[in-house]
Amino acid sequence: GSEGDTRGALRTRALRAKLAAVTSTIFDELDPPTRLLMGPGPSDVPPRVLRALASPTVGHLDPYYLRVMNETRELLKRTFRTDNELTFPISATGMAGMEAAVVNLIEPGDEMIVGVNGVFGERMCDVAARAGATVHRVEAPWGTTIEPDAIRAALSANPNVKVVGIVHAETSTGAHQPLEEIGKTVREHDALFLVDAVTSLGGAPLEIDAWHVDACYSGSQKCLSCPPGLSPVTFSPRAIERIEKRTSKVQSWYLDVSMIKSYWGGERAYHHTAPVNMTYAMREALRMVHEEGLEQRWARHATHHRALRAGLEALGLRYVPERSLPMLNAVHVPAGVDDAATRKALLEQHGIEIGGGLGPFKGKAWRVGLMGASCTRRHVTTLLGALGSLLP
Ligand code: PLP
After folding, report:
1. What is the distance in A from the centroid of ligand 1 to the CA of 158?
2. pTM of the predicted model, to two decimals?
3. CA 106 → CA 117, 129, 246, distances in Å?
C-alpha cells in the first residue's frame, strides 16, 4: 500500500544521507592540477618516472630490489662523477642529506668553516652547531659568491678546522658558487670538503672527484626531476677514514652512514625499510639523465637559461646574483608590482608556479626554476608570455 511506499522512500533517503556522510569524510579521489613547475623545486616529473613510482612494490630485501639498489648506486656515481663506493640516496629529503653529511663528519668540539651567502649556508651553520661544532662563518653578501681567498684566510687563521662546507647552488639567491679552487685549498690544508649540491646536481657541471669534494648531498626533486623524498649522498675514502676514526658515536641513529653502509653495501643488513618505490623513481630519473647524457643536460640548462635571461631582461627585470645559476633565476620584483598577486595570477590563470623570495628577499625577489624536465623551450616561452601579460 501507499504507507509501505512512504516507508520505503524514507529508508532510501536515510541510506543516501548516510552514504553522503561517509563519502564526505573520506574525501574525493585525488585529482591534482597539472602545473608547470618553475619554482625552486620540485620540478615537473616526467611520466616515465611517475610510472616507475607506480610499479609493484617488492620487499626491500627482495633480490629484485637489491638489483635496483645496485643499479641506482651505479647511476648516482656517474651523476656525481665519482668512484666513491659510499654513494646512495638517503631515505629523506635534501635537509636529511645535509644533516647526514654534517653529523657523520663532525664530532662535538670539531671546528668547521661554513660559507654563508644565503639561507642554505645559514642552515648548514645551524646543523653544524647542533652537532657540536665550533662554526667559523665565512660570509659574503646575499647574491654574491664566497671568494676562495676568504676560505684560504679562514683556514690559515684556524688550522684545526676539520671540515669546510659550501653551497654550490644557493637556491635562495640564485648564486652559482665556483668550487674547484676552494676544493684545492681545502685539500692542501688537509680538511674535508663538504658541498651542498641539492639544486645543482644534474643541471650544472659538478665533479666530485676532480674537484676534491669529500662529501656531497643533493635532492631528488630539482634537476633530477624525481618527486621529493630522496637525498643522494656521496662520501670519499678520506671522509670514510675520518668517520672510522671517530671517538664518539654519530649523534643521529637514522643518519649514521657506517650503519646505512651495510644496508646499501655488501651485507644488506636491515637498517630501515627503504622507500622501495621512490628508489624505482630515482632509478628511472637517473636513467633519463644518462640517456640524454650528463654533459648534454648541463648544456641544455645553460641554453634555456640564456633564453630565459634574455626574455626576463627584455621585460625589464634585473637578476639578483652576480653569477647566476642556470637552473635557478632570481630576479628583483619590479617597483610597484605586487609580488604575491603576480605569483597567484601565474598559478591560477596560467598554471605556472614560480617561487617567491626567502628571508630578507621575501616579497622582493622571484625565483624562476629551469630544472630537469622543467627546463625546455616551451617552459621558457610560456612563462615569458604569461609574465609579460601580467606586468604593467
Ligand atoms: N640545500 C639547498 C641548496 C636547497 O635548495 C634545499 C631545498 O630547496 C635544501 C638544501 C633542502 O632540501 P629539502 O627541501 O629537499 O629538504
Report:
1. 28
2. 0.94
3. 22, 10, 9
